[in-house]
Amino acid sequence: MLCMKRKDNFNHRHINKFINIKDVIDKRYNILSIIIIALIAVVFLNLFYLQVIKKDHYDDRLNFLTGNIVSLSTAPRGLIYDRNGVLIVGNEADKVISYSKSGLSALEEIRLAYLLGSYIDVDFSKLNDYSIRDFWLKQNLSEANSRITASEWEALSHRKLTMTDIDRLRRSRITDLDLAEYTLVDKEAAYIYYLMNVGYSYSDKVIKRGNVSDYEYALVAENLHLLTGFNVSVDWNRFYPYGSVGRSILGSVSTSTQGIPLEHKDYFLSLGYRLNDRVGLSGIEFQYESLLMGKKNEYLRRGSNISLYSSGSRGTDLYLTIDIELQAYVESVLEKDLLAAKGERNTKELERAYAIVSDPMTGEILAMAGKEVRLVDGKYVVFDATPGVYSNSVVPGSIVKGASQIVGYNTGVLKIGDVRNDACIKIAATPLKCSFRYYGDVDDKKAMAVSSNTYQFHTAMLVGGAKYVYNGPLKVDTKAFDIYRDTFKEFGLGVHTGIDLPNERLGYFGTSRVAGLLLDFSIGQYDTYTPIQLSQYINTIAASGNRYAPYLVMSGFKDGNLVYSKEPSILNKVNTEEQYMDRLRDSFRAVFEVGGTGYNAVYPIYEPAGKTGTSQSFKDTNGDGKIDTETISRTLGAYAPFDNPRMSLVVVVPDVSIPGGNYISNVDRRIARQISEKFFAIYP
User: Fold this and answer.
1) Residues of the chain above pLDDT 70, percent
2) Distance of alpha carbon 578 from alpha carbon 35, whole angstroms
3) Any catalytic annotation for residue 256?
4) How big, in percent rounded to 5, are the helix, strand and coil portions of the chain?
5) According to DSSP H, which parts of 67-162 are helical?
6) Residue pLDDT, tens place only, 536-547
């Protein structure tokens, strides 16, 4: 009985334990089932998302990966307008017939070349002997192979000859009689076949453009289903309503066959361009490529089927600071007066002249030009030299005395109103250093007006800590060169101006620090500066010491929306007291009053101020890389009206005459008078 009871208890415990285990298993099973169902749901939802919701997206990706994205034409670039909204660079459409290689055999391409030739006329005058032989070879490969001897084939098998050798032999055995059978139709097809295969295999081949008639365009478009790989499209070329005016500022664009030039290949490829893309090569077209470039229509090509993949758009339209009317006038004046000056005495070495008109209170350039005159077939011909405004430098002469005066004020060696005698300076073992003429006792204002050299010499010697003794040795602290150069840089002399064009250069900085050269530096007879640097210098004085960056592009619009805007940018303010800058501006005013060196260079009615300069320069006249001729260069900088400047003008005429002659041309003054008069006629 007791045993029986113990047995029942044992069985009961085991049954309960089993039930508990079963409950745990059931719970785990249920949890696992829920997890499995959830995973299945996730997979199902993901499949639904991929195959239904994102179907179009992945179809496009599949087409993209299995097809080939091509651009069959260039996108129109942004238009360029002057400051008044006058169109100066536009686009004109060119109808284009092109071909994209798609794995067809040579014989199939030849068949298509004949077919296309029946639809359009192609000038095949450039078909050369190599191309016509290549065409015959592709058409008659079996016949060409039969002209290779058995010994030559055997030599090929034994690697004594290469396939290049065999190909050369095949071509050499094409006779004139073989080619004489070709008609004009055959030659046209041969040239079309050549165009279908020239250049990179992946790039579109232009068969005909520019002179495609409407009939030809329509006929090819109607038969594209027969012309595998061919397409019709519209390309764009730049046109210039004002012809050559401002062209070197505006720059150029590569052709459709040129694509990215080799020297810029890495730069443009790093930006995602393709080798056959048309890009800006110079000037504004290059500097603002990222804005001007349009987005091309992209097509998906799968086999012989082509469909639009992505729509393109025109680039950003730019508005310049240039006034195209004033620009055209400045160029015409430079050309006319250069030619006139060449008819004057003592102008044998005169070749170039530059002029810049700008707003000194913003840095906006209203006109900028350079011209060069050369003797061609016994006649003087004028060429554009505008890039020299920011890349060629000149010995500036006295025009920089304004910056030298500030050095004197800042270092305390010169006080407002200081009077000095204008007698010549004599340093041991050197010639006399004098002003153009003796002016007697002059103060700082009069010294600027008459352009006294010796006044600046005394300042420079004091800055250098020298003790001047007539005809004695001169020793200066060479740190004075740094003091002068640092101040000059604050005016824009010897530094990049910030102009928005590529390839701006700095000029030449002398390395010798001989005492006499410090004196030369103070009157602009040592370092050289570009015309744009001289323009920024004059503007800085006109703007009471604020150095503005010069610029040419002020805004950009895309689809009517402003996407780029340039605000006047102050690069620095000249480190000097306001009283000194006021005194300098007052002195610059005196330069253009009666008795000043600039009187009547800009008519007094416009209330001008500024500075003139005449320098001794040197020139390599025979192109051997050696300086062999001393010349005289002229510079002139002005702004007006002096109390509220609305314009500044810088004229630079290098090598205008040769020293020792009895005549120095004043062509710079004539140019300045005409340009300033034109400005105030446009902007009264």
Assistant:
1) 89
2) 82
3) no
4) 40, 20, 40
5) 106-117, 129-139, 141-146, 150-157
6) 999 999 999 999
620 and 539 in one domain? yes
Residue 208 is assigned to a structural domain of this protein: yes
Q: Are 353 and 346 in contact (CB under 8 A)?
A: no
Rounded Cα distance between 344 and 340, Å, is 7
Domain region containing 30? 20-53
Q: What are phi and psi of 85, to 5 degrees?
A: 80, 15
Host H or E run for residue 281: none
* DSSP line for 20-34: HHHHHHHHHHHHHHH
| CA-wise closest residue to 529 among 667, 606, 637, 679 | 637
Q: How far apart are CA 390 and CA 497, in angstroms?
A: 9
Summarize pLDDT for 328-351 with one digit per residue, the tens.
Answer: 999 999 999 999 999 999 998 899
User: Which two three-digit tokens encode residue 35?
Assistant: 């997890």
Same domain, 567 and 673: yes
Residue 353 domain flag: no
Question: Contacts for 194-202 with beta carbons within 8 Å, 24 or more apart?
Answer: 194/127, 194/131, 194/134, 194/135, 195/99, 195/122, 196/99, 196/101, 196/109, 196/112, 196/113, 196/229, 197/101, 197/109, 199/257, 199/276, 200/275, 200/276, 201/101, 202/101
Selecting among 100, 398, 587, 617, the annotated active-site residue is: 398
Beta strands per DSSP E along 490-569: 546-548, 553-558, 561-565
Count structural domains, the chain. 3
